[in-house]
């Protein structure tokens, strides 16, 4: 099992050097040794996202969440990629990060809901943002579009 964390660390080092292909191989090696560690899936998903392999990244982020990762970054990256791929229904139904990236994720959810005519969802999200004390030109524009 410790070998898995060793490969994960090598992957992190390679990722920081933008050696995405090599980092991905290390994360996949870590997964092959310990398939129950959600962080390995998250890290591999980050590599794939940075390489532009969105479909594979989605799968890894979803799996990391399914097996219990509690990392706001994972949820945000998943929402961001789904939005970029215009999978608005999935964006609207995704769980939000708890702290970090929460506002950015809420704005993406509001935009997604607006695009699929779920105006009540948009209103709820905008209301939540207002309660959190967040306003911007973007949220004001979304409000006008409802």
Automatic annotation (TrEMBL):
Extent of the signal sequence: none
Q: Tell me which Gene3D superfamilies the record gives.
A: Tetratricopeptide repeat domain
Does the keyword Iron feature in the UniProt annotation? no
User: What UniProt keywords are attached to this protein's entry?
Assistant: TPR repeat
The record's listing under Pfam families reads: TPR_8
Q: Where are the TPR repeats?
A: 4-37
- The reply on keyword Cell division is no
Q: What is this protein called?
A: Uncharacterized protein
Per the UniProt record, the source organism is Tepiditoga spiralis
